[in-house]
Each structure stands twice: as C-alpha cells, then as structure tokens.
Amino acid sequence: PAPAGLLGDPDPEEAVSDDSSRHGGRVRGFPHERGNWATHVYLPYMAQEEFLELLELLVSRARTYVPSLAAMEEFHLSLSQCVVLRYHWIEPFVRSLRERLAAFHRFFCVADQVKVYTNQNKTRTFIGLEVSAGHFQLLELVSEVDGVLEEFDLPTFYKDPSFHISLAWCVGDLSGRLEGQCLRELQNIVEGFEDSAFLLRIQWEQIRCKSGNKYFSFPLR
Fold first, then answer.
1. pLDDT of residue 220
2. Residue 164 bears catalytic tag
3. Where do transmembrane segments lie in this chain (predicted)?
C-alpha cells in the first residue's frame, strides 16, 4: 500500500506482483522488495488523435514483421533510468528535483526519426521516435536530474543518450526483424503522414517523477 501522508497522485493500477503473465510477459529489471520504490523521471506526452492515427499505421505495418508487437498506451521521454528508492528517500529526492528543475522553461523538440531499441538485458524490443531537434535542452535537464541521482548514490542516465518516445514493444530481442527494410518502411510512413512535421514538433510543459504508485509533477515555466 502507498505510505500514508506521501504527497503525489496515486496510480490505482499499481500492483506488487512478479507474475510476468499478468504484464504481457514483461520481466522486472530488479526483483520487488518491500520498502523499495521503482522510480523514474520523464517528460510525459499527451497523445492527440492524429498521433494515435499515425501510431496505428506504424504498428500495423511493423506487425507484418513482428506480429506480437503491442502499441504503447502511454507515452513519455525518459530523463532517467528506472532506479530504486527507499521509502524514506522519496520526499527529499522529490524536493531536490523540484529545486533543481524550478528554473527551466517550456521548450520544443522534434521527434521524427523511427528507431529500434532493446532494453539493457535484451528482454524487450521497442520501436520509438528519436529526437532530431531539442537535444541540447534535454541534456541540460538530464544534467540536473543526474545531480539529484548522485546525491542519493543512484545510477545516472546513459552516456550519449538517444532521447526517444517509445511507440510499441514486444517481448524478447527481435530487433533484427524490425531493422532494415521494416525500419525504412516505418520512416516512409512518418514522412508521408499528413502534417507530420507539425504533429511531431512537441512542446514539453512539465516533468514527472513516478515512484512506486505515486506521481509528482514539476511544471516548466
């Protein structure tokens, strides 16, 4: 259960379970342990109807190569890895994030390059839209988030990150099927989609931190 008195918006769907069959075959990156809270800092993206239409086209085409692909239901751009916080670290962690991120303004990115990714232990494959403009501002945000992570002796973000919004995923390392011809076809869909240049120019308005079943928001100025 969520600790009483902890600020943030709860996620009623959160469950403490390691049964991968309940999550489409996904496997935890680390085992659940009572008192450990999986924590992630990211920029949320609220998908519009046109974006979902583009997503449907991309997933439909990609499924001709990998039928098990599932479309993402929520979209974001990561500013941290998923790290483990002890309960008593959450409040000071969020406070430090809020202080470091307070000066940042809203900004735009362009995410229009289709790319294939796998997670670190190769248990999942993703199709994503990589950022082609706005990289500098994202690195500035990551630098501040990394500073907070270092305060708590937690892993910082990847070196030379490929900032992206994940669109679809499947279990296992199936990157070989999706790269090459499939990737070229998906990129052609993006470039040929009506108003894609406008659609994939995204304004970021807030940063979020999810810790366990709690959400914390940090509006950009």
1. 97
2. yes
3. none
